[in-house]
Amino acid sequence: QVQLVESGGGLVQAGGSLRLSCAASGRIFRFDDMGWYRQAPGKQRELVAVIRSGGTTNYADSVKGRFTISRDNARNTVYLQMNSLKSEDTGVYYCNSKTPHPGLVYWGQGTQVTVSS
Question: 3-state SS string over 58-113?
């Protein structure tokens, strides 16, 4: 059974940092594109950052320069280092993987991040 399990969320003051982790199991993920999404209350889920199987990364404009996505294929884990957090970063953060063709998508259960101003 494929599972993605996020951890590392919590309550932090504005300007602080958090590191999210997503541990994947049930298949080999080194060929997948891995991403972090977030959903704020009353808003749609949005892409925060993605790291492709080859290591290239993309970020939402709102987090560029503050967040860093990375992966450890040996541990089947993807990370999101979040610095200089703002209140607008508050939301549930979800880990996502997308396989090569046929492009199956898996989601984690999410971890809450709350930034107090």
Answer: EECHHHCCCEEEEEEHHHCEEEEEECCCCHHHCEEEEEEEECCCCCCEEECCCEEE
Per the listing, tokens 């993920």 go with 29
Tens of pLDDT, residues 71-110: 999 999 999 999 999 999 999 999 999 999 899 999 999 9
For residues 93 and 5, give the distance between their C-alpha atoms in angstroms, rounded to a whole number: 11
pLDDT at 80: 98
Q: Name every residue whose Cβ is closer than 8 Å to that of residue 31 and which is 6 or more positions away in sequence.
A: 53, 99, 100
**Which two structure tokens, joined as six digits, stand for 29?**
């993920």
Which of 53, 47, 45 has the alpha carbon at shortest distance from 24? 53
CB-CB contact of 9 with 113 (8 Å): yes
Q: 70 and 76 in contact (C-beta within 8 Å)?
A: no
Q: Which of 108, 96, 107, 109 is nearest to 32 (CA)?
A: 96
Q: Give the whole-angstrom CA distance, residue 117 versus residue 106.
A: 33
